[in-house]
Design a protein that fits this description.
It is a single chain. The chain is mainly alpha-helical. It contains six helices and two strands, in the order αααααββα. The chain has helices spanning 19-28, 32-44, 48-56, 64-71, 75-87, 107-121; strands at residues 91-96, 99-104.
């Protein structure tokens, strides 16, 4: 039996001819701590129920009950997801009497959602 295994990626034969380009890219690369934080942020976007919540809050404030209705989830489940989103600084809330109204934390979040949607629709 022939066990000819081809490489996953083609082997580069340019022998580091582009080290200047690599060095420029490395100058712009965030430090490991920032990359770790960015990875953690993207993990938060990796759960469908959290994405549903973010899209519900895209243009309006909503209370937990309204979010639960919009996602088809329980108030308890939504509260849990809102805590994760709040800890990731993706949503904020304000009190109005006894109610808490949730909204996206800032315009960066709506931008991330818009760019992601645009990307997958290409």
């Amino acid at each position: 039996m022939n066990k000819d295994i081809s490489p996953v990626a083609p082997v580069c034969e340019c022998h580091h001819q582009h080290s200047g380009a690599v060095n420029e890219a490395l100058k712009k690369m965030p430090c490991d701590e920032e990359l770790l934080a960015l990875g953690e942020l993207y993990k938060v976007f990796g759960e469908v129920s959290r994405l549903k919540i973010l899209y519900l809050l895209y243009e309006r404030e909503l209370c937990v009950c309204d979010i639960a209705e919009g996602t088809g989830s329980s108030v308890s489940a939504v509260s849990h997801q809102l805590k994760i989103l709040k800890n990731a600084r993706l949503v904020k809330f304000r009190k109005e009497g006894k109610n808490c109204l949730y909204s996206l934390a800032d315009s960066h979040i709506s931008g991330i959602l818009s760019l992601g949607t645009e990307h997958i629709e290409e």
